[in-house]
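dumping this here before i forget
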Amino acid sequence: MTSLRLSLLISSRNASLSPKLFVALLVVLACLTTLTASPKKGQESASSGGWPEITAEERSLSSLPQDPGAAAVLLRNDRTGKIRKIADDTVNFLQYHWRLKVLKPAGKEFADVHLPAGKYSRVSNIQARTVKADGSVVAVAPDQIFQKVVRQVGDFKFIEWVFSFPAVEPGVILEYQYERRVDNLLSITPWYFEGGVFTVRSRVEQSVPKGMGYSILCDYCQGVKPEISPFREGKTEGQTYAVELKNLPGYREEIFMPPPREVSPRLEMVLQIWKGHILGGLGRQDSIFTDWAAIAKYVNANYQAGVKGGLEELKTLATTWTEGAADPTAKIQAVFRHVQRDFRYLPYDDVYGLVRPLQEILKSGYADNEEKAVLLQAALKVTGIDSDIALVSGKDAGTLNPKFASLTQFTHDVVVIPQSAGPLMVLDPTVAYAPFGFMPWQDSGAGALFLKGGLGEVGTLPVKNELSTTKYQIAVSPRADAKADLEIEARYTGEDAIDNRENLAPYSESARAETLKGWLERALPGAVLVSQSFENLENVQEPLVLKVKAEAPGLVTLAEGAATVRGCVLFCYDANPFAATQREHPIFVDRGWNKEQIVDIHPPAGMTPGEPPLGLSARSAIGNFTMRYSAGDANSVKCTGHMVASRGRWAASEMDGVRAMYEKVVQADRTAVAFQAGTPSGS
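structure:
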């Protein structure tokens, strides 16, 4: 008889959040064999092209009492998984079904769909359709579903599948379904129940054959326990467990949102028992990821195996890199810089404990979020410097849960070096343009698993609040055609400099110009880039300076004998970025900022400034904002705007104050300086 152990734990990792329910299950289930999907009564399988029935309630739904302003509502968000044995491979086949109803014209934003291929998974059998209010169906034609290269690093391509729903208007239902084959069974792909809008129903099912046992975490699952039912198809036996949640508020994409892992219900599964299976690196049969030590041993063994064959070649490289370095710190800095910059980064955010062989990494010239750290540690070792690798749960992904041992919580690796005095030296080679010694915000205070040669220890990286600033100096010269000539100097430090260097430094001059054109278009629709230059683009120890000349519409309004010129030029708020609806999630500012915009507005020809506008200021829990006007040189008017947001976390109840502050920001950004015909006094 199959045994079942069930325990409930209440978490209080964050006192400002509602308690969360942890369901830890250990289920030992039946031997693997090939499985065939068996549709439930009234529902065809996705692979056959059938669609779950659209209910009368779904057809008649025209508004959402829980969110009256909603532009759309997610009716169903489902995934069904079955682990199967195909020839000599054991894989997990996942079937997805997504159904959304458009309620208002703004719901057209859901017309475009992007499905990433994934690192160890493949997407297939995509089907999509629009169901009109009268019941007629407009299918997405197969030749309108495209494979798109979204990014290429060397010969490596990041692929996603893209398509657009036809005939999108209020009242229609949009739905798609597809299959994904996942080769990694050590952790089942985490399932997030919430969609981007209010979610009526979300369900996940996973069938597991006898002989495999998974620990299960259902986080923020509102006390719901998994449904466990027998699974049998032909000679194959096992169990299926499922969780269904209803009426979720939706995870809105807006600033100051916490990572989904901090607030959104999700299901995670980690393999603990696989009868008759030996996992390489662990050196034992049956027992897999039973604790953190097992994960550390597995990952460390794979990392060390990956570098064995290429150490001599790496030693030759490292000798060249460190030539002239007089002390260990100088050697560390030199090796770190070359691993950062000489190997293009494959920006994955999942950790699997697997890397390519070192020779392949060196030959390809690129490395992913794990390979970067493995390469750095190996290069330091051949230089005579010992270090350790830590798997990091980046602050952009969420807080590490130390009670649930899983690789799925980690986003990347770093290298740590003990120091005789002070905290650990943390080297994050995935951030290509960070100065040596700089702590990226994702790492500061982040939870980590220190491998320690395979022994494993869960801990926290040091906290280091680095200063990041953006300062714009802008000269505005209004023209007779109601456009304005702009001279912009942008000075960036810290994270702001890192981000901009990553978008500019690796690329050609023409590609940089295209990037700046897009930057201008987002800030000032219709603006034309005239020229650009850079200072310290490659010198990461100094502020990055960008100088741009441009012409832009929309800043100047002309009338007979008068003109007005907007005081805010770049990235101004025309509307409050926060919806007026009740905030459901807490406020996170994990990366603070300090932005200043000084605009010097020259008078139009033959005009003088009137009284400068009154300044505005506002405060809230996250920080403060000010805008001031003063007399500039040569009869100009100077507008100075400054916004500071502090790193921190606040309850959702603070959102009213944040929203009120941004109302003041919108008001200030819309303010214009008035000029009138006349000769300046004293001329």
